[in-house]
Write a structure and sequence with these properties.
CATH superfamily: 5'-nuclease
Structural class: mainly alpha
Shape: globular
Low-confidence stretches: none
Helix content: 55-70%
Number of domains: 1
Order of helices and strands: HHEHHEHHEHE
Radius of gyration: 14 Å
Number of helices: 7
Oligomer: single chain
Mean pLDDT: 93
Strand order of the largest sheet: 1-2
Largest sheet: 2 strands, parallel
Protein backbone atom coordinates (compact mmCIF):
# COMPACT_ATOMS: atom_id res chain seq x y z
CA UNK A 1 0.00 0.00 0.00
CA UNK A 2 1.22 3.45 -0.92
CA UNK A 3 1.61 6.09 1.76
CA UNK A 4 -1.09 8.37 0.35
CA UNK A 5 -3.82 5.87 1.24
CA UNK A 6 -2.62 5.83 4.86
CA UNK A 7 -2.60 9.61 4.95
CA UNK A 8 -6.18 9.76 3.68
CA UNK A 9 -7.19 7.16 6.25
CA UNK A 10 -5.56 9.19 9.03
CA UNK A 11 -7.38 12.31 7.84
CA UNK A 12 -10.65 10.43 8.26
CA UNK A 13 -11.58 10.22 4.58
CA UNK A 14 -14.37 7.62 4.28
CA UNK A 15 -13.25 6.07 0.97
CA UNK A 16 -9.82 5.21 2.37
CA UNK A 17 -11.23 3.81 5.61
CA UNK A 18 -13.79 1.77 3.69
CA UNK A 19 -11.15 0.31 1.38
CA UNK A 20 -8.85 -0.60 4.26
CA UNK A 21 -11.75 -2.23 6.08
CA UNK A 22 -12.40 -4.45 3.05
CA UNK A 23 -8.82 -5.72 2.75
CA UNK A 24 -8.31 -9.43 3.47
CA UNK A 25 -4.84 -8.74 4.81
CA UNK A 26 -2.68 -5.68 5.03
CA UNK A 27 0.95 -5.78 3.97
CA UNK A 28 3.02 -2.70 3.35
CA UNK A 29 6.59 -1.74 2.63
CA UNK A 30 8.91 -0.47 5.33
CA UNK A 31 9.33 2.50 2.98
CA UNK A 32 5.66 3.41 3.44
CA UNK A 33 6.13 3.21 7.20
CA UNK A 34 9.20 5.47 7.05
CA UNK A 35 7.28 8.01 4.97
CA UNK A 36 4.51 7.98 7.57
CA UNK A 37 6.99 8.35 10.42
CA UNK A 38 8.39 11.55 8.96
CA UNK A 39 4.89 13.05 8.84
CA UNK A 40 3.68 12.35 12.37
CA UNK A 41 3.17 15.48 14.43
CA UNK A 42 3.65 13.79 17.81
CA UNK A 43 4.07 10.47 19.64
CA UNK A 44 0.35 10.14 20.30
CA UNK A 45 -0.37 10.19 16.57
CA UNK A 46 2.37 7.62 15.98
CA UNK A 47 1.04 5.34 18.71
CA UNK A 48 -2.52 5.57 17.36
CA UNK A 49 -1.37 4.45 13.93
CA UNK A 50 0.70 1.63 15.42
CA UNK A 51 -2.36 0.46 17.35
CA UNK A 52 -4.46 0.56 14.18
CA UNK A 53 -1.83 -1.53 12.39
CA UNK A 54 -1.82 -4.06 15.21
CA UNK A 55 -5.63 -4.29 15.19
CA UNK A 56 -5.55 -4.97 11.45
CA UNK A 57 -2.79 -7.57 11.90
CA UNK A 58 -0.77 -5.60 9.38
CA UNK A 59 2.55 -6.95 8.18
CA UNK A 60 5.40 -4.54 7.50
CA UNK A 61 7.64 -5.97 4.79
CA UNK A 62 11.36 -5.24 5.17
CA UNK A 63 13.53 -3.73 2.48
CA UNK A 64 15.66 -6.73 1.65
CA UNK A 65 18.77 -6.80 -0.53
CA UNK A 66 16.65 -8.25 -3.33
CA UNK A 67 14.05 -5.48 -3.06
CA UNK A 68 16.82 -2.91 -2.97
CA UNK A 69 18.31 -4.29 -6.19
CA UNK A 70 14.90 -4.34 -7.89
CA UNK A 71 14.34 -0.74 -6.81
CA UNK A 72 17.74 0.29 -8.19
CA UNK A 73 16.86 -1.36 -11.49
CA UNK A 74 13.55 0.50 -11.58
CA UNK A 75 15.32 3.77 -10.85
CA UNK A 76 17.89 3.16 -13.58
CA UNK A 77 15.22 2.42 -16.16
CA UNK A 78 12.50 4.87 -15.11
CA UNK A 79 13.81 7.91 -13.30
CA UNK A 80 14.84 9.86 -16.38
CA UNK A 81 11.96 8.70 -18.58
CA UNK A 82 9.11 8.70 -16.05
CA UNK A 83 10.36 10.60 -13.00
CA UNK A 84 10.24 7.58 -10.69
CA UNK A 85 11.39 8.57 -7.20
CA UNK A 86 13.33 6.39 -4.78
CA UNK A 87 10.52 5.85 -2.24
CA UNK A 88 8.10 4.85 -4.97
CA UNK A 89 10.71 2.51 -6.49
CA UNK A 90 11.11 0.72 -3.15
CA UNK A 91 7.34 0.49 -2.64
CA UNK A 92 6.87 -0.85 -6.18
CA UNK A 93 9.74 -3.33 -5.80
CA UNK A 94 8.25 -4.58 -2.53
CA UNK A 95 4.86 -5.14 -4.18
CA UNK A 96 6.51 -6.90 -7.13
CA UNK A 97 8.64 -9.12 -4.91
CA UNK A 98 5.66 -10.23 -2.83
CA UNK A 99 3.23 -10.38 -5.77
CA UNK A 100 0.92 -7.83 -4.16
CA UNK A 101 -1.55 -5.40 -5.64
CA UNK A 102 -0.39 -1.86 -4.89
CA UNK A 103 -3.19 0.26 -3.46
CA UNK A 104 -2.49 3.90 -4.33
CA UNK A 105 -4.05 7.20 -5.24
CA UNK A 106 -1.05 8.06 -7.37
CA UNK A 107 -1.44 5.58 -10.21
CA UNK A 108 0.61 7.89 -12.43
CA UNK A 109 3.66 7.38 -10.19
CA UNK A 110 3.58 3.61 -10.75
CA UNK A 111 1.88 3.08 -14.12
CA UNK A 112 5.17 2.66 -16.01
CA UNK A 113 6.38 -0.20 -13.80
CA UNK A 114 6.04 -3.40 -15.83
CA UNK A 115 4.32 -6.27 -14.07
CA UNK A 116 3.04 -4.17 -11.16
CA UNK A 117 -0.63 -4.71 -10.28
CA UNK A 118 -2.19 -1.41 -9.23
CA UNK A 119 -5.53 -0.59 -7.64
CA UNK A 120 -6.56 3.04 -7.54
CA UNK A 121 -7.94 4.33 -4.26
CA UNK A 122 -9.43 7.80 -4.25
CA UNK A 123 -10.07 9.95 -1.19
Amino acid sequence: MDTDVWIWYLRGLPAAADRLDRLQGLMFSSMSWMELLQGFRNRAEQKAVMKSLEMRHAIRLPITAEISEWAVGLMESQTLSHGLRSGDAIIAATALRHDLVLLTGNVRHFASVDGLSIERCLP
